[in-house]
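Q: For a teaching session next week I want to show students how multiple molecules come together into a single three-dimensional assembly. I've collected the sequence lines for a complex. Could you give me the predicted structure tokens for the whole thing so I can convert them for display?
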Amino acid sequence: MNSIDAIFTDKGRKTLIAYITVGYPSIESTLKAAPILAEAGCDLIELGIPFSDPLADGATIQNASFHALQNGVTVKTCLETAQKLSKQVKIPLVFMTYLNPIMHYGFDAFCKACSESGISGLIIPDLPPEEGIELEEAAHRYNIHIIYLLAPTSTEQRIVTVASHAGGFIYLVSVTGVTGARKDLPPDLKSFVSRVRKATDKPLCVGFGISTPEQAAEVLQIADGVIIGSKIVRLMEEDGSLSKVGTFIRDVRGVMNTSK
Amino acid sequence: MNTLPDERGYFGRYGGEYIPEVLVPAFDELKRTYDSIKNDRSFWAEFKGLCRDYAGRPTPLYYAEKLSQHCGGTRIFLKREDLTHTGAHKINNALGQGLLARKIGKNRIIAETGAGQHGVATAAVCAMLGMECVIYMGEEDIRRQAPNVLRMKLMNAEVRPVTSGSKTLKDAINEAFRDWISNITTTHYLIGSAVGPNPYPMMVRDFQSIIGSEVKQQIIEKTGRLPDYIIACTGGGSNAIGIFYPFLDDKDVKLIGVEAAGRGVETGKHAATLFAGTPGVFHGAKSYLLQDSDGQIMETHSISAGLDYPGVGPEHSYLKDSGRASYVAETDKDVLAAFHLLCSIEGIIPALESAHAISYALKLAPKLAKDKTIVINLSGRGDKDMGIISEALGGNL
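A: Of course. Below is the structure for the complete assembly, covering every listed component.
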């Protein structure tokens, strides 16, 4: 069994997923942050491999990616970081990145390296399932899930197609937009989640734009999990000791547990 | 007969649709609409009518006698896209996609621009069709192509400076994609080159192939036969594919794309994607690109903002691998010399982009027999480049 599937077997527990960009603000902070996130109540960590042209990302993650690359972060750095972290934390780790760095590394070689580094899944915002066949085959050989995305604009037919390819869980993009914290949840989120729910029994995690414990609680009334990215990246920027990040995750976890 | 791309948007192994999920329905709609107009005679009649009455087509095919003599006698013809309304071939595609957006029912247009020529063409078409227009342009390009920024603003376009990455064309495309992802239901992204996800490379090619179709007729009228060489500058590759496409099945016509070698390919400061790049996925399609050993997209350099791009249209990648077209690269220095030569002996000020094609022709022509003919796509005029030229001359104009 892939370790991602295991976290969704406990139906009583909602899933909290954190995103961090590898090497931002520094490699040390990435290494330090993951155990804090795990201990504070995260169930899965997305490690962002920085890409030079992150066109699905808003200002916060663009900036993080830019500086991580300036810091000299490479795909190899990310694999090494994952390997170190997978020995320290028990929760699953996945990579989030764009397709080109993976293609350049080679699909089979990359999936093999991922599996050796304790990575359980891949999230690739510029890879729809139609273009993912070759990578899916490689991922399958090494027991790695490809986690596909759906958006509020996805049609019913599209939902069925994507769900049939989805490994682990489906990443529901809450907004018609790029990543980044937002003040309010979109009004059509509930109907979007229920449209997907009707078409599949795969776990559904909602991300993009979620930045407060209250928003997380609201999302979890309808979804199985919540993904928080830009907010965490910003907290790591603000507070190098990472105590703010820990407090924030504990707050989110707290609200999740009480609103159950 | 060339029937590419295939139904999945591939030219051989290049192309495809590597797009974020949120864009999928918009692409389905775009493909459906484009399919429906492909054989719709009224659409093409309106397009050609506007190309004629608004853009000033057909553009002349000019026999450049003094340039030909300068090169030893091989006959050189210039396809005068510089004489179109707004000053470059970009207007052809802007008109086509503008009409297409109206057909889809979208009234807000976004576009990227490098040299500003596509931005100006898009601004003009939006003003004429009564559409809202937002142009993304790198801060560095805004600086070096200031006259075009003013022209866009005069035609009611909003020009949004892009400050991320290298602050040039590729970053403007990233920002346009982000806008589109956020405003997908109201907005059409009017991509200016034959790049991006399917169906853009095909659509842009089809709208631009009016250039090659005209050349085919004009060269036969003037010389009684097809040309031996067609030369066009290649950044994303829209003017090149536009003039190449109608000749793809005429195997005796040699097709040559000229990329930007910048300060020299060996210096790393260039934009010669096909000449020096490797395949990968960028801006939604698989194609050659300039990337480092880790698959990160590299920053490019060229004296011409319009060629300053690390990718290239997928059909060019296919034509390169199949050997149907060949691709070379010219340095800033040689391009400037070619620019000055054309100004002084023909009285034509070419865009710095187009001067790349002239520069290569100056090297090729003297090696050819006198009975050979060359057609160069003079894709745009150089008025916008006066600032750069003045800088290059150290202010001593």
